[in-house]
């Protein structure tokens, strides 16, 4: 009978405890299927994150504005626990959860200093799929 490694399971992984981050950035990635909200410090290190999937939604319910609002609320509350008070918001993607995620961050008590749209726009990139013949 094969045995596992002796010391592999006894090692504990400790999380970094980051406190007193007065201002940071909120990155909202809104796709058509999901919305991911990441709260970072000024240098881009992720402090807290949440998505519609981690908030308990599955399938097509992940792509709703309500799911995006709950995800943004969870990420903002977790970041506020690290001492974050002000954020710059960066939005990427065309999804339905863009506006509701921004409003949820504002409603959670964080002061929004600026909102920037970082959606990548192709300069005639890849060839589109063929037209459907129905």
Model description:
It is a single chain. This protein is an alpha/beta fold. Helices cover 19% and strands 25% of the residues. The protein is built from two helices and five strands. It has helices at residues 65-80, 98-107, and strands at 23-30, 35-40, 46-51, 86-92, 111-117. The longest helix has 16 residues, at 65-80. The mean pLDDT is 90.
Give me the side-by-side strand order of the main sheet: 3-2-1-4-5
Q: What number is the mean pLDDT?
A: 90
Instruction: Classify the secondary structure makeup into a structural class.
Output: alpha/beta
N-to-C CA distance: 59 Å
Note the run of SSEs as H and E. Answer: EEEHEHE
Largest sheet: 5 strands, mixed
Approximate helicity band: 10-25%
Low-confidence stretches: none
- If helices are DSSP runs of H or I spanning 4 or more residues, what is the number of helices? 2
The total of beta strands comes to: 5
């Amino acid at each position: 009978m094969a045995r596992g490694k002796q010391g592999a399971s006894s090692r504990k992984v400790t999380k970094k405890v980051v406190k007193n981050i007065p201002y940071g950035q909120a990155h909202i990635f809104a796709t058509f299927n999901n919305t991911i909200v990441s709260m970072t410090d000024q240098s881009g290190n992720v402090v807290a994150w949440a998505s519609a999937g981690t908030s308990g939604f599955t399938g097509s319910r992940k792509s709703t504005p309500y799911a995006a609002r709950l995800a943004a609320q969870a990420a903002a509350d977790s970041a506020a626990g690290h001492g974050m008070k002000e954020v710059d918001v960066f939005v990427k993607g065309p999804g339905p959860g863009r506006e509701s995620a921004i409003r949820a961050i504002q409603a959670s008590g964080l002061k929004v200093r600026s909102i920037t749209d970082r959606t990548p726009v192709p300069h005639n990139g890849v060839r589109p799929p063929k037209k459907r013949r129905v």
